[in-house]
Amino acid sequence: MDSDVILVIVVATALAFDFTNGFHDTANAVATTVSTRAMSPRAAVGLAALLNFAGAFISLEVAATIASGIVEADAINEMIVFAGLIGAIAWNLVTWYFGLPSSSSHALIGGVAGAAFVAEGPDVVLGDGLVEKVLVPALVAPVLAFVAAGLAILVAYRVVGRLRPGPVNRGYRLGQIVSGSMFSLAHGTNDAQKTMGIIALALVAHGDLQAGADPPFWVIVSAATAIALGTYSGGWRIMKTMGSRIIKMDPAQGFSAQGGGAAVILTATHLGFPLSTTHTISGAVMGAGAARRLSAVRWGVAGNIALAWVLTVPCAGGIGAIAYGASRVFGEGALGPVLVSLCVLTVIAGAFARRLQRGPALTAEA
Amino acid sequence: MRLAAIEWDALLELVWVAPLAALSVAFTFSLCIHGAARASDSRRAGRTGAATAYGALAFLAAAAFAATVVFGVLVITSKD
Fold first, then answer.
1. Confidence (pLDDT) at A186
2. pLDDT exceeds cutoff 80 at A242
3. A176-219 residue pLDDT tens
């Protein structure tokens, strides 16, 4: 009975994480599209939701384990996964609250690593894996995207510089719909798979699925639906930061940021070196602004974003560790996860209510 | 922690291929806009030859951009 309840809780938490992932990362794909008025906000998030939903079905790759190569695979159990998810969800909501784009994948890695650290000791957390899969990509993605988008905007201005702005802006707005769509599709194929992997892992541990088997259809549909619903809900606060708080961009800059960012993401995927979409597009937006004029970038906002990236793994890890410890206080049964879930839901409801009363938060002086 | 764990070959290839890909995307699409805008201006000015040439430039650039997008979709869908 207890294991059934834990399975239900893990599946529900995984889908909640998937929802926050879509909700939180929508901004990556469509913020510049919205800010340059290439599409209306609703149409942009609607298209992003549709492509995230489709992306979940396109890629057949399903991660059999989460935090693979970062935490010893044998050490991961349902309770650690649950606590890791709580850490990731909490960090996603904290960064959303302050309008800061941060990587949901790194939050999940941090959450699981923190929970595993407390559960099994420091030996199960692999330092090499953290360097290879978190630290290096976190440094490479924004810098490379910054350079790529910077070069792209210089070339774009060079080619269209003497033309009338009307047709040029219309053209780049059209291009942004394409580049934003590519981002959304890539995001759907990457991130919905993580949730499918988590649910599949829980089903294997529960004895409902053979190890290595494809996930059931309901898992694919529910993961695709959760990320699409999250995307459609729209992380407007982060979208505002990405679209207009880092730089005030024109359509050419928006296209260069998205096109340059998409080029970096897809090249990295092609070379088997996956990068965070959040880090990439953030670096690209800054690059598209800085190439025109260094002072065009609001470096205070950029600094806040960089700080959020640095804090992602340790903070999500800390929350994951606390969630694991709190769950285990009540033994190995379902009572701990149930109470932790209720606590988290209460805190989230309180934060939303407080936010609604106080109005929008500021990430830095504009 | 060992730096050997990092895939240096893939990283180095990424460092030069990604900006090149970004440049190609920006260049082809900007060329498409340039061609289309100039073709429109030329047509309005009654310069049929120039309009045709710029139209052809816009078409070729659009085809190159479309090929890049198709390649990108293939990369997304065929990753393993």
1. 78
2. no
3. 999 888 888 877 777 788 888 888 878 887 888 887 778 888 99
**A348 contacts: CB under 8 Å, gap ≥ 6:** A93
Mutation choice for A interface testing from B25, B44, B54, B65 by most A CBs within 10 A: B25
Residue A196 near residue A217 (C-beta atoms within 8 A): no
Note whether B37 contacts A148, CB cutoff 8 Å.
no
% of chain A at pLDDT higher than 70:
93
Q: Which residue do the tokens 């210089």 mark?
A: A154
Q: With contact defined as beta carbons under 8 Å apart, do A21 and A238 qualify?
A: no
Taking contacts as CB-CB distances below 8 angstroms, the residues of chain B near A168 are 33, 37
pLDDT in tens, A19-34: 988 888 877 778 888 8
Q: Please name which of A193, A214, A188 lies closest in space to residue A203, comparing C-alpha atoms.
A: A214
Which tops the pLDDT comparison, A123 or A206? A123
Considering only CA atoms, give the Rg of chain B. 19
DSSP string, A183-248: HHHHHHHHHHHHHHHHHHHHHHHHTSS-TTPPPPHHHHHHHHHHHHHHHHH--HHHHHIIIIIS--
Of B34, B72, B79, the CB nearest to A61: B79
- CA-CA-CA-CA dihedral for A106, A108, A111, A117, to nearest 10: -80
* Residue A56: how many other CB atoms lie within 10 Å: 27
- B23 contacts chain A (CB < 8 A): yes
| Distances in whole angstroms, Cα of residue A11 to Cα of each of A15, A171, A223, A252, A356 | 6, 44, 10, 43, 29
- Of A116 and A200, the structure prediction assigns the larger pLDDT to A116
Question: In the numeric block, which tokens belong to residue A304?
Answer: 């806040």
Determine the average pLDDT of the residues in A302-323: 92
Q: What is the ipTM of this complex?
A: 0.89
CB atoms A167 and B22 under 8 Å: no
Give the C-alpha distances (Å, rounded to integers) separating A7 from A19, A94, A113, A345, B28: 18, 26, 20, 18, 51
Burial of A122 (0-12, 13-18, 19+ CB in 10 A): exposed
Q: Is A125 helix (H, G, I), strand (E, B) or coil?
A: strand
- Best mutation target among B30, B43, B44 (most A Cβ atoms within 10 Å) is B30
Angle, vertex CA B42, rays to CA B36 and CA B44, nearest 5:
105
Q: What is the pLDDT of residue A361?
A: 47
Residues A132-173: tens digit of each pLDDT: 888 888 889 999 999 999 999 999 999 998 888 899 999 999
> Is the CB of B73 less than 8 angstroms away from the CB of A270?
no
